[in-house]
């Protein structure tokens, strides 16, 4: 059976069950595992010798939290990440994850368009963790100016779960989202990325069998100690 693609409603339901008494995960745990999968994806495709300078773009929600975790792991992998927050998150978990990055001497750009322009000139690859599967358009400031700058940079982009600006079900129909080279879907791919034709990975090794079976996710096998699995060939046959 083929890998199941998730609607917004189903993706939220699975997240809720992962953090319920059934799944028994905390948000911190899920962010740590998701961020590790994102860092591993970037490291697998873009080697540290050629793509050492990573601009990690973090939105204010849980997607941005995944990005902060990824930045910390990338630093431990030998990369030189820099954090860009168009709009910093205000929740306690977000602030703690940011502090963990500061403790690793990972710099954060000053807010504003000019600092982003400057940083793009000295970056090798972008990790896009701005918007998650709950995103609904239109794109508002300051994101409406940030996304075009990221697209125009010409740098390779790795997007987390769903490319920023894409609708979780309609994809990039509006034509305002990023067009990444690499995508790492979390838990299971979302309906909106069926038309994605770049290199596609899945990072969801934390999904317990009880929920995989309940939602008929038909997840692929993760090999060895890998937190990710390449689903490019399978997803492009759909």
Automatic annotation (TrEMBL):
Catalytic activity reported: (6R)-NADPHX = (6S)-NADPHX; (6R)-NADHX = (6S)-NADHX
Keywords on this record?
Answer: Cytoplasm, Isomerase, Metal-binding, Mitochondrion, NAD, NADP, Nucleotide-binding, Potassium
Gene3D superfamilies in the cross-refs: YjeF N-terminal domain
- A GO MF label: nucleotide binding
Residues that coordinate or bind (6S)-NADPHX: 62-66, 132-138, 161
InterPro entries, A to Z? YjeF_N_dom (IPR004443), YjeF_N_dom_sf (IPR036652), YJEFN_prot_NAXE-like (IPR032976)
Q: Which domain of life does the UniProt lineage start with?
A: Eukaryota
Domain YjeF N-terminal, chain residue ranges per copy? 11-218
TM spans (from-to): none
Protein location: Cytoplasm; Mitochondrion
Residues binding K(+), per UniProt: 63, 128, 164
Q: How is the cofactor bound?
A: Binds 1 potassium ion per subunit.
The cofactor required is: K(+)
EC number(s) for this protein?
5.1.99.6
The cellular component terms of Gene Ontology attached to this UniProt record, alphabetical and capped at eight, are: mitochondrion
- Physiological role: Catalyzes the epimerization of the S- and R-forms of NAD(P)HX, a damaged form of NAD(P)H that is a result of enzymatic or heat-dependent hydration. This is a prerequisite for the S-specific NAD(P)H-hydrate dehydratase to allow the repair of both epimers of NAD(P)HX.
Q: Which family does it belong to?
A: Belongs to the NnrE/AIBP family.
Q: Which PANTHER family match?
A: NAD(P)H-HYDRATE EPIMERASE
What is the protein name given in its UniProt record? NAD(P)H-hydrate epimerase
């Amino acid at each position: 059976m083929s890998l199941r693609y998730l609607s917004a409603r189903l993706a939220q339901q699975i997240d809720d069950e992962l953090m319920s008494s059934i799944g028994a995960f905390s948000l911190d745990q899920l962010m740590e595992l998701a961020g590790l999968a994102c860092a591993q994806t970037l490291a697998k495709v873009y080697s540290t010798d050629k793509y050492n300078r990573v601009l990690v773009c973090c939105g204010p929600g849980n997607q941005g939290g995944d990005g902060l975790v990824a930045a910390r792991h990338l630093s431990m992998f030998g990369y030189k990440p820099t954090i860009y927050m168009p709009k910093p998150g205000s929740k306690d978990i977000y602030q703690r994850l940011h502090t963990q990055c500061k403790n690793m001497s990972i710099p954060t750009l000053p807010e504003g368009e000019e600092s982003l322009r400057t940083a793009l000139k000295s970056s090798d690859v972008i990790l896009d963790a701005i918007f998650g599967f709950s995103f609904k358009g239109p794109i508002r400031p300051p994101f409406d100016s940030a996304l075009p700058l990221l697209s125009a940079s010409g740098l390779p982009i790795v997007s987390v779960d769903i490319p920023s600006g894409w609708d979780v079900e309609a994809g990039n129909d509006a034509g305002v989202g990023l067009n990444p080279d690499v995508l790492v879907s979390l838990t299971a791919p979302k309906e909106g990325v069926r038309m994605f034709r770049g290199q596609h990975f899945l990072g969801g090794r934390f999904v317990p069998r009880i929920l995989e079976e309940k939602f008929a996710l038909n997840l692929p096998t993760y090999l060895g100690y890998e937190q990710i699995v390449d689903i490019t060939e399978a997803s492009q046959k759909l």
